[in-house]
Specification:
Length: 298
């Protein structure tokens, strides 16, 4: 039974009406990713400096790249040990009796016209993975918030330390073995969340190029309007995922991308559309392409 009391995705109006709610926790998950002009693996860096220059009043900064990832993993953004995550997230004020809104800049790739709150959805996914359901992502992020002339501040946010007793929901995470099995399973839909060029193997971002066999391409950056910064209407989103075969309630969906970030945006929208049987492959192409024994298709 779900304990959810807030929507999966909320508007700026929704958040503005609740800024003074003592049960609200606002987390700024801003992180930056840029594709080098010369090609190769992408650069990523913390958004803490940008947070310090201005954020939604009350928000605290959540360090996805550092504190909320497994530093012992060879791959960035790997899910951290549960104890580590709970220690860091409760210090940010998240508690069993609170609800959370996560946001980012909504500009998913530096220098590219890609709108999508995938960093926010990554943190929201991690919270749900650890059993905390009352978390929402802000549609349009800080970019939309500021364009609407809403308040921001440079004063650091602070919440009382929380108490977290939720139980991990292992069904939300897919492993490399799960994906290997899914390639031959008609009851599982594999969704590659990267760009069409990445999917076709036309880029050299990863150790090897291409996509996981049997996967279909649903680019995570196609779901939002470049002008309004909001998600497209539900009927348009539904059509996109129906064409991918991902809204069949009798099937399981596994989303993947480069490092388990963009895939959470697709997973979140699928959940919003009513597809609850969705897992995210955390290692994604970074892990898969590094294993020479695993197949890739172009």
């Amino acid at each position: 039974m779900s304990n959810r009391k807030v929507p999966l995705i909320v508007t700026t109006d929704w958040l503005a009406e609740r800024l003074d709610d003592p049960k609200l926790r606002i987390l700024d998950a801003t992180t930056f990713l840029k594709q080098p002009a010369e090609g190769g693996y992408y650069d990523v860096w913390s958004g803490k400096d940008v947070y310090d220059k201005g954020h939604i009043p009350g928000a605290v900064y959540a360090d996805l790249l550092g504190e909320l990832s497994d530093s012992n993993s060879p791959f960035k953004f790997t899910v951290p040990p549960r104890d580590q995550f709970i220690d860091k997230i409760t210090k940010l004020g998240v508690s069993d009796d609170t609800y959370v809104v996560v946001y980012d800049q909504a500009q998913a790739v530096v220098g590219a016209p890609v709108i999508g709150s995938d960093w926010a959805s990554r943190l929201a996914w991690q919270l749900r993975y650890e059993g905390f359901e009352n978390v929402a992502v802000l549609d349009g992020g800080l970019l939309k918030w500021k364009e609407e002339g809403r308040p921001s501040t440079t004063e650091p946010g602070s919440y009382p330390e929380g108490h977290f007793t939720r139980t991990r929901n292992a069904d939300l995470l897919a492993t490399k073995e799960d994906v290997k099995n899914a390639m031959e399973d008609d009851n599982v839909v594999l969704i590659n969340s990267l760009s069409p060029a990445d999917f076709a193997g036309e880029t050299d971002t990863y150790e090897r190029s291409g996509h996981i066999p049997s996967s279909v391409n649903v680019f995570f950056g196609q779901h939002s309007d470049q002008k309004t910064l909001q998600l497209h209407p539900e009927e348009q989103l539904r059509k996109t995922f129906e064409e991918a075969g991902a809204l069949d309630s009798d099937k399981k969906v596994i989303t993947y991308c480069g490092s388990g970030i963009a895939a959470t945006w697709n997973a979140l929208i699928l959940n919003q559309l009513g597809q609850d049987n969705v897992a995210m492959y955390d290692g994604s192409m970074t892990e898969w392409a590094n294993d020479k024994d695993l197949p890739l298709k172009k």
